[in-house]
Amino acid sequence: MPRPPAPAAKPPPAAPEPARVNGTSSDAGSLPSDTKIEEAPKKPKRAAKPVSVPPPPSAKASQDADMLAMAQKSEEYYELKRSVFDALIDTIDLAQLAQLDTKSAGEEIKDIVAEIITIKNVVLSTIEQDQLVEDICNDVLGYGPLEPLLARDDIADIMVNGADRCFIEVGGRIQLTPIRFRDNAQLMNICQRIVSQIGRRVDESSPICDARLLDGSRVNVIAPPLSIDGPALTIRKFKKDKLTLENLVNFDSITPEGAKVLSIIGNCRCNVLISGGTGSGKTTLLNCLTAYIEADERVVTCEDAAELQLQQPHVVRLETRPPNLEGKGEITMRDLVKNCLRMRPERIIVGEVRGSEAFDLLQAMNTGHDGSMGTLHANSPREALSRLESMITMGGYNLPSKTIREMICGSIDVIVQAARLRDGSRRITHITEVIGTEGEVIITQDLMVFDIQGEDESGRVIGRHKSTGIARPAFWDRARYFGRDQELAEALDAAAD
Ligand SMILES: Nc1ncnc2c1ncn2[C@@H]1O[C@H](COP(=O)(O)OP(=O)(O)O)[C@@H](O)[C@H]1O
Ligand SMILES: [Mg+2]
């Protein structure tokens, strides 16, 4: 886990020194920060009645006991950590600490924390003490309580809703974690530290910020006053090992035959739109499909935050840029797509189509850039088509809807629909062809669909992928041109059984 440089100028706890010149620094009651006011009464209450911490109200019945135990443990632990932390920042000069490299700084902190613990007469096992030192190092030098979550590879998303609530998504399910921040000021500090690494700023005057961690994870911060209960931080973790179509088959997201059809679609240069909700696996699927692009094709990718990992040698990656603090210098997706047409691409890959660039992408698809692909936010192939249409209408093109629809039909060959079902599993629910227009209506034909039959006792969705029995899809000639018709026929045939 790459650590950010230690904050030289802004120590995380923002402790005004003069307030405690004469105070006993170890007493949590003397906490000076105004953001901690509501914490103050807890201490006497806890002393009188040790089990007064209520479980998180939203916790499900099955998790209640666990969460209660964890919450109680963390309550004491955080109290201890807070007081040790305060004593620590009274003792050391954070600016000086920032001059040291991470390892020496860590050693320094470790020594001082050991001393503080001895002075305070706290009994801790070696393991507990190591844990405490690590947490404090993370607070001072890294991303604080987020560090252990960032280090885990099995987490897809981290969602922090203010200092007291942190959720993660593991294996498609959202769970509440016992991770907490000291207060919203600490959380805000960490957010600031994350975004300042790429030269952005987040505070009351610019409370919305997109950023990226050094490891490629995508970050969004929205701060008060816009987010009412403290800063909301969302991290979509970057997966080093991208999923492949084989993985998706193993996860039952698609059948082997379906995967075969998708690989042929990717290979024989169909223009593809991948549709799905947030986190449904669109980008993953797009990445999978790009694996079937031939090595000699020139590919240009346009993304808001580079996520795709194309393995081909001839790839140019482009990324949009938000406006700077003065509101200038923005480079939109549309700018990129337009520019990319002048780069002699063979295929254009657009990470997410969400605005007027839809028009330029369709035009590109229409004018010799076969095999272009993009993702779009919609819940069904039909909805994807109407979203595309409204993006073009809203982009200010004064075209009759019949023309727009014809343009869509002339450009898009296949829509692949991804979905995150209610049990957390991700499936490819449709492989649908766009075959033409009849009057003003776009005609589509499903090649494969996921048919939901119900759910079992544990809430898992039962269903199966089935072929709709179409033996000759509209892209058949294309497949034949690329010599893949035989395989396509076999895959569709096998799926029909
Ligand atoms: N079929 C799948 N099975 C399990 N996990 C998946 C699947 N597809 C994607 N994921 C995981 O889900 C998360 C979100 O996927 P992503 O492709 O970024 O979604 P989207 O682009 O639709 O927002 C990622 O962590 C990814 O690894
Ligand atoms: Mg995505």
- Cα end-to-end separation: 48 Å
Q: Using DSSP, what is the number of strands?
A: 15
Helicity range of the residues? 25-40%
Strand content: 15-25%
Count every helix, treating DSSP H or I runs of 4 or more residues as helices: 16
Describe this entry's structure for a reader.
There is one protein chain. Strands 9-8-10-11-7-12-13-14-15 form a 9-stranded mixed sheet, with helices on both faces. The protein has helices at 42-48, 61-91, 94-99, 102-120, 126-141, 147-151, 184-196, 245-250, 256-267, 282-290, 333-340, 357-366, 381-394, 401-411, 476-481, 485-496; strands spanning 155-161, 166-170, 173-177, 208-212, 218-222, 232-236, 272-276, 299-303, 315-319, 347-350, 373-377, 414-420, 426-438, 441-455, 461-467. Helix 11 runs parallel beside helix 12. Residues 1-65 have low confidence and may be disordered. The radius of gyration is 27 Å and the shape is elongated. The protein is α/β, with parallel strands linked by helices and 497 residues long. Magnesium ion (MG) is lined by residues 282-283, 352.
How would you summarize this macromolecular structure in one to three sentences?
With 497 residues, the protein is α/β, with parallel strands linked by helices.
